[in-house]
What we know:
By secondary structure, this protein is α+β, with helices and mostly antiparallel strands. The protein has helices at residues 92-100, 109-124; strands spanning 45-47, 56-67, 74-84, 88-90, 128-138, 141-152, 155-163. It has two helices and seven strands; from the N terminus they run ββββααβββ. The strands form two sheets. Strands 2-3-5-6-7 form a five-stranded antiparallel beta sheet, with helices on one face. The relative contact order is 0.17.
Amino acid sequence: MPKKKNSPTQPPRPSSLTSNTEGLTLLGAGSLPNVDRPSTSLLETFPNPAPKQSLEICFSTDEFTSMCPITAQPDFATISIHYIAKERCVESKSLKLYLRSFRNQGVFAEGIIGRMLDDLVEVLTPHSLTVIGEFAPRGGIGLRVETSYVDTGNKKQKNSTLKK
Length: 164
């Protein structure tokens, strides 16, 4: 059977896919670092495999915990992160470690979500990024904190929304 020719309007596709894993140290590591506070050094990135596309990447976890800064009681939340990658993507295992590093931090929800946005924008420099924290109700009141970043060329824009 003769081979199919590529359409003149579409470039030929590579026969196999590869990923650039240079610089990733946590994925596949036997032991994990002891992380007790958030740091951008925990967030490992890799080159965007499709930089010419509008690649939207979404992460979500319902296992996020932190502590109330007043009572030291645990706060539970679902964290959602959505971004449109520019040159870099965040490696998911490093993101899990980063999120885990908030576990013993006594910080209000608003500060946590703002910190996440700032740290992720710093390591990724994305086209846009949104972080949403839906914190479990305490005393009958739930809390949703959302903050976004948009790279508008020379001017970077950050918006925050608090909903109770």
